[in-house]
């Protein structure tokens, strides 16, 4: 039995697009969660944190475009159905409105989950050079964003808003 090169190429693209689609879904959920955290903060209450989160979701928005453009140039089709997200994502946010400190902790955990996914995707020897470069860029950007989030936690910017006796970790 002979399989057309066309069919093999399509199968190969489909199997290599799954990890990128899973990553894209996590990136989109992190973008959405960051934006929601921004919406829950009031300007007069947390202006610095609100501005910081805006910078974060704007960076994630550009990152999403970078991933989808790369996928399309490589012949992959980005998943565009929201209902598929909950089955594929490495993390899902709770539906309660958290405190600012909890927001930062949740976003930190989400970046950690994406970094773990990036590490897992980057392992195979067969990763195309373009994909490896993209994954390295994403890893660098997430590490930088994570560092800034952790700085907000460890420097105690939110310390004044914590209940007595509660400390940041």
What does the model show?
The protein is mainly alpha-helical. Helix content is 69%, strand content 0%. It is built from five helices and no strands. It has helices spanning 5-40, 47-73, 85-88, 100-122, 129-154. The longest helix is centred in the first third of the chain and has 36 residues, at 5-40. The N and C termini lie far apart (61 Å).
Give a brief description.
By secondary structure, the protein is mainly alpha-helical.
Topology:
Elements: H1 5-40, H2 47-73, H3 85-88, H4 100-122, H5 129-154
Largest sheet: none
- Average per-residue pLDDT, rounded, comes to 79
Count of runs of 4 or more consecutive helical residues: 5
Q: How would you sum up the global shape?
A: globular
Number of strands: 0
What percent of the residues sit in helical stretches (DSSP H or I)? 55-70%
Tell me the Rg in angstroms.
19 Å
Helix and strand pattern? HHHHH
Derived structural class: mainly alpha
Could you tell me the strand content as a percent range?
under 5%
Cα-to-Cα separation, first versus last residue: 61 Å
Low-confidence residue ranges: 1-14
What are the salient characteristics of this protein?
169 residues, mainly alpha, disordered N terminus
């Amino acid at each position: 039995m002979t399989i057309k090169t066309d069919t093999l190429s399509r199968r190969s693209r489909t199997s290599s697009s799954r990890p990128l689609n899973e990553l894209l879904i996590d990136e989109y959920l992190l973008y959405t969660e960051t934006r929601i955290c921004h919406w829950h903060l009031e300007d007069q209450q947390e202006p610095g944190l609100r501005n910081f989160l805006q910078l974060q979701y704007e960076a994630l928005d550009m990152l999403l475009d970078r991933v989808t453009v790369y996928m399309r140039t490589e012949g992959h089709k980005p998943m565009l159905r929201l209902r598929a997200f909950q089955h594929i994502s490495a993390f899902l946010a709770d539906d309660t409105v958290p405190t600012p400190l909890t927001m930062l902790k949740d976003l930190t955990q989400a970046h950690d989950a994406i970094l773990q996914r990036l590490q897992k995707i980057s392992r195979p020897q067969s990763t195309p050079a373009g994909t490896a470069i993209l994954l390295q860029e994403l890893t660098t950007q997430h590490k930088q964003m994570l560092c800034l989030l952790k700085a907000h936690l460890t420097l105690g910017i939110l310390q004044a808003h914590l209940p007595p006796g509660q400390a940041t970790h």
